[in-house]
Amino acid sequence: MSNNLNIATAYDDKIRIYACDTTNIVKHAQDIFNLWPTSCAALGRTLTIALIMSYMEKMDSKITIKIDGDGPLKNITVVAHKGEVKGFCHNPGVYLTNNNGKLLVGQAIGNGTLTVIKDFGLKEPFSSTTELVSGEIAEDFAYYFNQSEQTNTAVALGVLFDKEGKVTNAGGYLIQVMPNCPDSTITKLEELLKNIKPISNLLADGLTSVDIINLLSDNTAKILETLPIKYHCGCSKERFLNGIKSLGNDEINNLIKDNEDLHITCNFCNVTYTFTPEDLKKLL
Ligand SMILES: [Zn+2]
Q1: What was the pLDDT predicted at 11?
Q2: What is the pTM of this model?
Q3: pLDDT digits (tens, 9 = 90+) for 174-224
Q4: Residue 139 contacts by C-beta under 8 Å, 6 or more apart in sequence?
Q5: In angstroms, what CA-CA distances link 222 with 6, 10, 218, 226, 227?
Q6: How far is the centre of ligand 1, averaged over its atoms, from the C-alpha of 29 (Å)?
């Protein structure tokens, strides 16, 4: 359930490119949540952009992404920190396609908002909300970067499935234009992006993230870093016990009074923990 992410500089250091193959990570998410294809495409695209963003900040920060829509998928929550990602969607059972079998992620999400919260460990986390442009995730993030961070950014995210609805490929790239980039380079890049295959097709053709960077940069790229990425929850019974303890004695006594086991399932990894009344009494 791990992969790599590459960061490159291209076109005379005027463009920065982040690219990653997240196939193993999205496959893992599909396995743990039994995700149907449209739900899986939406969550997989969001996990991929979150991983890219987790390596974009100079300062150490935890990135939380919330997508809230009025479609059947309702909402998605993803958290990433330095190449580790976890997330879930409210409705794992959405399989919405058009007549040609194309997954309708935008319709599944509907109208709504995208919120990005960056926690740098300071008093107040940075939070920014933009309207969803299409609900297709990549466009919504390109809009977010242009609006909230005033950077000229292109984003491509994709998840591909076999006939049984199982993930075969997943990945994405993000292109950031530096402020001193000449217009001629931007025009050249725009032309190239117009003619490039969708990211999921490139991955299905067997291209690696480095191949994709070379394609996007017209072979002008220098790979700066190759960094690990993986799905990682990090929850434990102790962490949940600490959470229950913070509810206070009245609430804990309430939980104990029926003398039954308490089951809590982690949203981010679907593992269920069982707490006996004895476990809970120790918290008092
Ligand atoms: Zn967990």
Answers
A1: 95
A2: 0.95
A3: 999 999 999 999 999 999 999 999 998 999 999 999 999 999 999 999 999
A4: 133, 155
A5: 10, 6, 11, 11, 15
A6: 12
In the reported structure, the alpha carbon of residue 242 is separated from the centroid of ligand 1 by a whole-number distance in angstroms of: 14
- The Cα 111–Cα 147 span in angstroms is 18
**Tokens matching residue 127:** 């939070």
Q: Which of 121, 117, 139 is nearest to 129 (CA)?
A: 117
How far does the centroid of ligand 1 lie from the alpha carbon of residue 66, in Å? 18
What residue type is 171 in one-letter code?
G
Tell me the domain boundaries of the chain: 2-231, 237-281
What are the residues facing 16 on neighbouring strands? 9, 176
Rounded to the nearest angstrom, the distance between the alpha carbon of 18 and the centre of ligand 1 is: 28
User: What CATH class does 2-231 carry?
Assistant: alpha beta
Instruction: Please tell me the distance between residue 100's alpha carbon and the centre of ligand 1 in angstroms.
Output: 37
The CATH code for residues 237-281 is 3.90.1280.10
Query: What residues have CB less than 8 Å from 9, skipping those under 6 apart?
Result: 15, 16, 17, 221, 222, 224
Short-list 143, 131, 147, 213, CA closest to 175: 213
